[in-house]
Fold this protein.
Amino acid sequence: MIYSRPRCGYFVSHPKETFTLSPSEELQHSNMNFKEIKIIQPDQELCRLLRLTPENLVILITRVNSLAGETAGVEYKYMPYEKGSPSIEEEINYAVFPDPAIEKSYSFNYYTEVEVQAATARGEVLSLLRCEEHEPLLQISRLFITQDDQYIAYSKQYLRASCGILRGISGYVHKNGKNRKD
């Protein structure tokens, strides 16, 4: 947000083009429950995404999202495991996603790369969502990166289309603007 130039002073950074995504209000008020927390060996995709070697370990947190008694989504969150940091206990205590751990919860400490695409359920996702094999799902993949280029978490979430929508706002919105939909 602010940067410095030696012998010149401090300056405010120009805003970058951003796109903010948020789930529907209905989905925001749904229940998210832990299904499983375990330490795993990362596969090639996780090694690439989190800049790990196959010798590293990863904490895998699986959470299920329920809405009005129906399973609305499933999320897999992967965090590099280092003894004591981050700890599984911290993740459980500060489980408001996307904060990988409380000490990294300030939004200017990290940024998120997001990829949204249509998908169909396979394997465990199919059984957790109790959906048809070819039912369309919304897949949201997020990569959390600190300002000093440390990859701190990766998440892959699958949402049923019938359980909510994803809305986005791009650019600056003036609170009193007339072109804004309410």
